[in-house]
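anyone else get weird line breaks when pasting these?? whatever heres mine. first is seq + tokens for prot A
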Amino acid sequence: MKLLLCGYGASNKRVAALAKERGHEIVGVLLLRGQSADGYPVYRPDERLPEADAVIDFSHPVLTKALLAADTGLPLVIATTGEKEVLIEQMKEKADRQPIFFSANMSYGVHILTEIVRYATSLLPAFDIEMTERHHRKKVDAPSGTLIKLYDAIASARPSVHPVHDRSQTEGARTDEEIGIHAVRGGTITGDHEVLFAGHDETITIAHHAQSKDIFASGALNVAERLIHKENGYYTYDNLGIGDS
């Protein structure tokens, strides 16, 4: 594939390295300002772009919105976190003109984790639920897009719940409807997500620990390799077909 990268942070730098190993070519990087990108040609999303098969976007909402506003017509693999509802609405509006894939976490393992958490929630109606995510000290959004994805899975199985982000601002004991949300930032933690189900005299913890950013970069490339053969539409791990035998 000939690939354009939207954004050039740590994740897309790994995409570039792994893409080369797989025999793909990075034909440019999309940025809003005149930043450099390790020698790759830099473009704004709204200018004439080189021939490409797909765009992989690990950036931020401002740049992703600019990408969606541009009429590239290319398959888009979007992994930006932040302003989720706004971005999904824009993606779905554009999906009749190009195939667009979105996931807040490009790890297929996290997709499976989400399904496990959804199922566990339905099986454990009397258990309290607390959620914790841990990331490196430079991550700017909290809670993470992945934790929000996991929370949405819980809420789909237990619609009465609501998030509690700061217990110091609450009074009295927790209620059955509360889901405690905890964000930790420090060091170089790639990404840990844990969902605690706490019942009477027993607890169950379901967790995913990312050991390097390569799982996200590799996941994005796997999606792109499949997305370029898809019809126009809005895709997630639920309907793309990755994992099918």
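and prot B, same format (seq, then tokens)
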Amino acid sequence: MEADMSTAKQKAQELHRAAGHALKARRVRFDFSGTPLHWLPEDPFSSYMINGIHLLLPAGELWFCRVYNQALPLVSDDALRAEVEGFIRQEAIHSRAHSGAQEYLRGHGLSVEEYVARVDWLFGTFLGDAPLAVPALRHSSLSRHWLVLRVGIIAAIEHFTGVLGQWAMDNTTWEARGDAAMADLFKWHLAEEVEHRTVAFDLFDHLCRTQLGFYVSRQALMALVFPLFIYFISEGARSLARQDPDPRVRRIGRLWIPRLLWQLQRTGRRTGNVPTFSFLVVATLRWVHPGFHPFFEGDTEQALAYLARSPAAQAAV
């Protein structure tokens, strides 16, 4: 197994670094003054599933930045360090962009504070510098282990952002049917997720002491991250849908998560506006393979092609 992992890693890194692509932050701005609440017309379900992400990402991506700034002194590979620094700069702007989108939700009369407070506690306290929010565990003997574990959690999360990024690059319905500003925010963000999809995985690998330990720990962390990812995405959508002016739409906010995931599967197949639940499951199963590497999960050139025509990214140049 270690031989398979080493071969896949070497091939992926050779291909990635041969491209010679440096990560850069694009200081984008978005105007949502004309963006409707259901920015995908006649599809409130997809609109809320996607809009719920605005509630999760600002705190989460700032947490990524804090953890990676702590990990930087442990990085002995110059090329990887440069990629981690580029990742940090991109994620900080992602956080700011989605914070602005929270104002768009408030402007439509939706309250986001209760859900955002839970997310802030998760990333700021439970996953903060005191392990599991227990001050007694904040000890020098545990600090490196806790840091590497959090780097691993980020790697598992970034697997989903990477595969969703490639899904968005292949998607045509957002631009064809949706609000232009909101479609551009998500496609710009997800294009950058494709662009930096290898960084989190490579950093976690770099900080693990053995390849076997890396493989076992990343599987254990994915077993934790996958259900939490599904829960927080689902709850974000439900918390917004419960406040919709239309009582028929408010039913989305009362769906149990299994029923919500069934609706995600059905809506994704019917409209193409959201990825299906089976898409997420299959992507997670690929992570299990010993030879897995995120380089093979996306197309950097396709992502850069979108960034070259993104209105917000081009205005930021």
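btw re prot B: The chain has a mean pLDDT of 95. The two ends are 45 Å apart (CA to CA).
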